[in-house]
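Section 3.1: Structural characterization of target chains.
Under the original work plan, the team committed to producing a structural model for every single-chain target entering the pipeline before any wet-lab resources were allocated. The record below documents one such target. The sequence was received from the expression subgroup and is listed exactly as submitted; it comprises 680 residues.
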Amino acid sequence: MNYPFEKLRSLKSVIPARPESFFVTKKRFPPSGNDRKCFICLFIYFLPFILHILFITTASYADDQTVITSETLEYDQNRNYIAKGKVKIERADTVIEADELIYNEQTSDVMASGNIQYHDNDVTIHAGRAELNLETKSGTVFDAEVFYKKDNYRISGKEIRKTGNDYYSSTEATFTTCDALVPAWCFKGRDMNAAVGEALTAKDVFFRIKNVPVLYTPILWAPILTERKTGFLFPFFGYSDSRGFQLNLPFYWAISESRDATFVLDEYTKRGLGTGIEYRYIGLGNMEGKWWGYHIRDNELRKDFFEFRALHIQRSTERMGGYLNINFINEKDYYREYKTDLQVRTNRFLESTGEIALPFSNSRAYLLSQYWIDLKEDSQDPLQRLPEAGYVLNPTTAGPFWISGSTSIANFWREEGVYGQRLDVFPRITHQFGENITVLQSLGLRETAYSLHRGEDDSLHRESFEYSILGHVRLLKKYASFTHVIEPSLGYTFITNSEHSPAIFDSTELFSKTSLLSLSLLSRFISDQGELMVLRVSQGFDSYQGDRPFLPVLLDVGIKRPLPLRLGTAYNVHTGKIESMNSDVSMKIAEIAFLAGQRYNRLTDVNTFVAGIGIHPFTPLSMDGKIWYDAEQKETREISLNITYTSQCWGINLGFVKRPDDFSVSFLIELKGLTKALKI
C-alpha cells in the first residue's frame, strides 16, 4: 500500500517508539443496568492494572519517544520524516539541531546537514553534515568538532567516526583541550583513535603551538583520563651548576583502584643515572601508606646514594592499630647534594618511628621504636630507642578528683657512650575547685630505675615528689568595637629529686629539684569578626637556682588583624640579653604579598632572616621569591624564585635557586588533561 505525502507547516510531531498498530474497541453507551454493574466490577478489578499502565508504562514510553520540531515536515512511503528549517530532534538525553534532517522511524537513522549541533549528557558535536543512529549513538560526522564536556577534550577533523558513546576515529584529526579558535596547543596526526576514559593514539603526529609545528613523533599514545591510567607522566627538566642538566622521566602504573606506583628515571649529566620507585595504597580500616626507594651512583663524588622512606598508617580507636614512619639515607650529605627544598636541606636530624597501640575505654597500651640519624658531619651517633613499651591512663574521674598516669620501660642503645634500660612509673591525681577564681592542683609520685652500661653506676634509681597549684581568673570589659579579656594566673611547682644524676636519654631525665613560683598575664582583644590580638607575658622565680633565681621573661605576641604577626622571645634578666627570638610578619597590598621572619638562639649560634614576596598581577601569572640570610655566617644562604603561568589548557613553571656553591634551574610544562600520563 502506498502512503501519500503529507505536508505540514509549524508542526511539532511526536513519533511513538513502535507506531505500527492501533487498537479501537466499539462499545454501546449508555450501558444497561446489568452492563453498568459489570462495568463497575470490571473497573474496580482492573484499577491496579490501569494505575500501573498510567504511572509506569507511560513513563517508559515517554523515554523512548522521538520528538521532531521544524518549520516543515514531510513523511514518505519509506517511513522517513523529512524536516526542514530550524530542525530539532529529541530522544531521551540526545538532541540534534540542524537546517535539514531526514529521520527513519524504523531504523532510527538520522541524516542531517547545515549547522549541526549534537548534544547528550557527555558530548557536544558541531558539524557540517552528519549520519547518526539515535539508538546506538554511532555514525559519522563531517567537518566536525567533538567536545567531551567533562574534561574539555576536543577532536576536530574532516571526517570523524563515532562508535558508541566514547569512541572516535579519523583518518586525520587534531586533539586539544583548549577553547580558543586557534588553540594554544594541539596534536595533529593520521589514523587517530580516541577512547574517552582510556587513551588517544595517532601516527605521524606534530605537536603544534598556535598552529605552528614544534615537535614530531611517529607514534603518540596519550591518556584521555576520566580515571587513573597507566602511562608515562610529563618529564621534568632542570639544570644545576653542580649536577648539570637534569631529565626526570616518571612512569605511572595504575595497579588497581586502591594501589598505584610511580617509577622514576633521573639523568644528571655531571653526576650519573638515578632510579626510584614510589608505591601508594589505601585499604579498609583507615589504612593508607606510601613507600619510596631511590638510588644514584654519583660518578663525581664516587659514592652510591640510597634513600628509603616508608609511611604506613592504620589507626583505630576501637582495635589495635599503629603507624610506621621510616626515613633513611646512607650518606649524610645526600640532601645537601640532591634536594632543593630549603627545609629538607637544613634538617639536623632524620627520625624514624614505629608504634603499635591497643586502645581501651580510657587508656591505651603501646609498643614504640625510634631511630635517629644526625645529619651533621663528624657528630656522635644519637641515642636510639629500641624499643619502648608503655601504658597510659587518661584522666579518669574518682569522686571530685581526676586520676591519670603513665608507665614505660625502654631500651636505649648507641655505639659510643652510656646506654641501657629504664623503667619509669608516674601516677598523678588532679583536683579543681572555684568558679570566679579557678584553682587547679596536681600531685604526682615518680619512680625511675636504670640498668646502665659504660656508666659509672650500672644500677641506680631516682624518686621524685611533684606538687603544683595554679590559680586563674578571667576579667573582661566590653568597648564599642571590641572586648578586652585579661587572664592573670599565679602558680607554684615543687619537685623533690634524689641525688642520682644518670645520663640524659630524653625529657624524663631533665626534671630536677624545683621550687618555682610563676606569674603570667594573658591579654586578648576580640571583635565581632574574631580575635584581633593575643599577648602573653610570663616569668618564674626558682629558689633552687642559687644566685640567679629569676628565669627568663617570656613574651608571646599574636596579631591577626590588621597586620598578621607572631613573636616569641626570651629575655635573660641576669645577663641583660635576649636568649632567643622567633618572629613572622606578613602583609598584602593589592596583589602583592610580603613576608619576613627571624630565627635567633644565642646558645646554638643561630641567627637567620627570611624575607619573601609574592606577586600576582593577574590571574594566570604568579611570581614568588624568597631570600634566606645567615647573620651568624654573614652570607646569603639561598635565593629562590618561582614563576608560574596557568592558562585555560596549559601551564608552565620556572624555578631558580641560587646558593653559595650552586645555581639551579627547573622547568615543568603542564598540558591540561595530558600531564597525568603521556607516552610518546
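Residues 33-64 form the longest helix (32 residues).
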